[in-house]
Write the structure tokens for this entry.
Amino acid sequence: MARNEASAPRCILKFEDVSLQFDQPRPALDRVSFEIWSGETRIILGAAGSGKTVMMKIALGLLKPTSGRISVMGQEVTHFDERQWYDVRSRIGVLFQEGGLFDSLTIEENVAYPLLNQARFMTAGKKPTLDSVRPDVQEALNFVELGNTLNKFPSELSGGMRRRVGIARGSVADPDLFLYDSPTAGLDPITANTIITLLIKDREMRNSTAAIITHRFQDGHLMANFRYNPEKECLEKLAADSPIREKTKFMVMKEGRLVFEGSEAELDACSDPYISKFSMHPARKVS
Amino acid sequence: MLDWLKSPFLTFQEFVLLAGRATVNVVRRPFYGQDLFLQMDTIGVGSLPITVLIGFFSGVIMALQMSRALSQYGATGQVGQITAITLVREMGPVLTALLIAGRNASGIASELGSMKVSEQIDAMRALGTDPVKKLVTPRLLAMCVTLPLLTIIADFVGIVGGYMVAVPLLRLTTGSQYWNNAWRSLEYNDIAQGLIKPLLFAFIIALVGCLYGMRTTGGTQGVGRATTQAVVVASVWIFIVTALVTRIFVNL
Ligand SMILES: Nc1ncnc2c1ncn2[C@@H]1O[C@H](COP(=O)(O)OP(=O)(O)OP(=O)(O)O)[C@@H](O)[C@H]1O
Ligand SMILES: [Mg+2]
């Protein structure tokens, strides 16, 4: 499944001066520009209400920016209409902050949903059947270690399990970009680490590109410094010169503006009081 | 002053847009048949018992109220006519619609509202389905089919209720005279407005429920607010529309 490592890096997501203003006086997103290249992991940090979710929804075309330009996979999508957006979205996997699992459908139907409804999986205008996609659904659920919950409903699972179902649903169609909105929010540290382990595993298996919104610096630290060891089934520290280290970049949002972009070392070195709240060093000062 | 007018105007504009998109989707593929039948079941079959009950009692009350007035003029024989006309023209459509607005506009708004705040509607769009086609169109179609049927049932049961009062209870008239009188008094005009009204109300109830549900913001509290607003707005529009339609038919 892993894609050719040697293939030239492509620009997967590009924001140019993107702003979005709702009815409030302060814009929810204020002239934000950045690029995410293939194979990169982007950690997006920021206080509540700083515009992280809004940014993600703009990247999916769920919200329209008031100004600025967006390209997804080299395609200028700023003025796409809803129908054109469906094609773009079918290349993007997403885990929503509030879960977004359909309560009226079983876990199996939830995970199968993108395969059954996205136009690119239709043959001659016909939808695939639930039976024909079952192997893919089973594989995605096995990956998140929930292979035996096919016939349960989301309400019967715990919060951490629902999060994992969301990851399975987002990855089942093998997306080129995965957007995770707060995958570890509201979970205990053990479950949170399980989720991050899954994201690292997914990165290694599919060489995927991901943007991860989070409040926890540890999430970014794990993504930037660890790899998954399939034999021992656990995380292990990366070599100091591993290319993964520099492929993990950090972004900090504040009141709709992008106030920091750089590597973990740069984030640690930053002395700005707001930004340094999201880095390891206040913790180090305490200890 | 302008700001005060802006928000209802924008809401109305959204309503018209949603109505347009939901209606166009009726003929566009894919067609979500399963969702349609599920909605017809919850709206139609689910509302049947209460519709029958309310229909029956509105006929009973109508005949009771009229009995005194009619006996003053010595026209108790006309009770069938009066019950039938008021029920078919106005009481049947409006009472049924208010009932369904209370029961289903709220149900639709709270269901879609919960889906909105738990990002299920965003998830639908992200995963390749149009929420208007998947959620709004089946509800609109189901409402347009079931509400006129429920109204016809309410009308009929109401006339039966009137009969119960007029014949066995108060002996105002004979059974055959009641039914003859009721049946003959109905003109095309009455039947037409008795069927056009529920169709228009169906649009109002389904679309107001969907619109307020899909616009929900602010978590679970927002769902409660959306539900209340949907019922109030749908009920007010039912009265406005019935007044307008009646005005048109009075002139015909
Ligand atoms: N649909 C909307 N209508 C109006 N304002 C909105 C809407 N969505 C978001 N906002 C506003 O935009 C700002 C950014 O919100 P956003 O949801 O992106 O925050 P966030 O960074 O994801 O926060 P959190 O970490 O709590 O999830 C907030 O001030 C919010 O009130
Ligand atoms: Mg958020």
